[in-house]
Amino acid sequence: MKTWAEVADVQPLAGKIITNSIKKHRVSHAYLLQGARGTGKEDIALLIAKVLFCESRNDVEPCHRCNACRRIASGNHPDVHWIEPEGQSIKIEQIKNLQKEFTYSGLESNQKVYIIKGADTLTLNAANRILKFLEEPSRQTTAIMMTENSQSIIPTIRSRCQIIDLQPLNPSQFQQHLIEEGMTREDAVLMSALTNNVEDAFAWNSDEWFADARKLVVQLTEMFVSQPEDVYLFIHNHWVQHFKERNGQEQGLDLLLLAFKDILYYHIGNEKALVFFTQHDALLEKAAMAFSQEKLINVLNAVLQAKRKLKQNVHPTLVMEQLTLQIQG
Q: Looking at the domain 207-328, which fold is it?
């Protein structure tokens, strides 16, 4: 999404709220953009920044051609500061460095913008430190925070931001777009369950690591059904070795969640809802016989709980060990 007109097509309410503020010269001093991956948080953040710095704006639309717009798009504007998690969290040192930057006058104007990706990963000390900006806002300072998990952001930050809710994209339209771009229907269905981002969908679909991740989920499901005594060893020898980074660990759990959802759908005769497995996968029938509906619901809750533990920085190996015991129990 490169213009507010495009935002209006995908996120009509969010687009209307922000563009109305721009027209009335009432851009908020702090926004919290909350929504799932692929719903347009970064595109909207860039548009807000461009609006504030653009040298040739046309009503609410930045020109995208001026020096300021081009540098913001490339991440090189000296008065637009990006903060991203270092490792698994945004640390207090990063916020201290940001505060230091803000003691200087703007290099080209007095306007400054800071954009925080993954705001839910702020450590408690970092979150308390960022409150200084929010409690004592400068008229020419704009904060834009982005999150997929707004409930993990402390209430004092939430209360000082204008919260913009971004809605999930329509899965059917997204699937059709992927198919039109050359993806198979089966892959498009799976990708639409994992992301709303076209670039991510095609990148994952052609990625060898992701293909191996899918195979590991099938193998793990098979082991829970046929060789439960070997699952613990499989987790240590294969799963943990493959899913080393946080994003990969979360993606592994997302795939496992979809696999067990499919088993439940098969159990209740809703095969049209299958996402991970095909309708004729022999493993589905075996798994449906091995797990009761009640057990499958408990497994799904256990996987969701495991995802929350990863967000809370619990050691991933421990998370998988506990999840394995819960599924087997």
A: Zinc Finger, Delta Prime; domain 3 (1.20.272)
State the Cα torsion 276-280-282-286 to the nearest 10°.
Answer: 80
Q: What is the DSSP string of 138-161?
A: -TTEEEEEEES-GGGS-HHHHTTS
Q: In this structure, which topology does domain 4-165 adopt according to CATH?
A: Rossmann fold (3.40.50)
Phi, psi of 80 (to 5 degrees): -120, 110
With a cut of 50, which residues of the chain have pLDDT below it?
A: none
* Calpha distance 37→194 (Å, rounded): 9
Give me the pLDDT at residue 1, please: 76
Alpha-carbon gap, residue 105 to 85, rounded angstroms: 26
pTM for the model stands at: 0.65
Can you give the pLDDT at residue 134? 84
Ordered by start, the domain boundaries in the chain are: 4-165, 207-328
Instruction: Establish how many alpha carbons lie within 13 A of residue 294's alpha carbon, considering only the half-sphere containing its beta carbon.
Output: 1
Which pair of tokens denotes residue 218? Answer: 């099938």
How many other C-beta atoms lie within 10 A of the C-beta of residue 79? Answer: 25
What's the confidence (pLDDT) of residue 181? 87
Residue 31: in which H helix or E strand, if any? strand 30-34
Place of tokens 């809605």: 167
C-beta contacts of 305-308 below 8 A and 24+ residues apart? 306/253, 307/250, 307/253, 307/254, 307/257
**DSSP 8-state class, residue 167:** P
CB 148 within 8 A of CB 34: yes
